[in-house]
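Q&A log
Question type: sequence-to-structure
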Amino acid sequence: MTITSLPLLKAQLNLDHDFDDGLLSHKLAVAEEWIGNFTGTPFADHDPIPASLTEAALQLAAYWYVQRESASDLRLSAVPFGVLELINPYRESVTGHVAA
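Response status: OK
Response body:
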């Protein structure tokens, strides 16, 4: 189950059918998991969920829904432009310093 709503993702994509609801739900779950892994904090642990993290999840899920292949004649990026800027403020800082 995802925090970001399926109807919100469908609005992002301008979809008005139910044919791909299972795939869209999967893309949302993966996007929220990816964001949690990137930031170091599970997506659901943010209470409330910041709008910028919801936007990042929508952009990721929509991008991965539209661009389903990892190889193409076009230049692809792992995440769409702007996603990292949306989630960087929530990233756990790791300095490598260990207190004695």
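Response note: The two ends are 42 Å apart (CA to CA).
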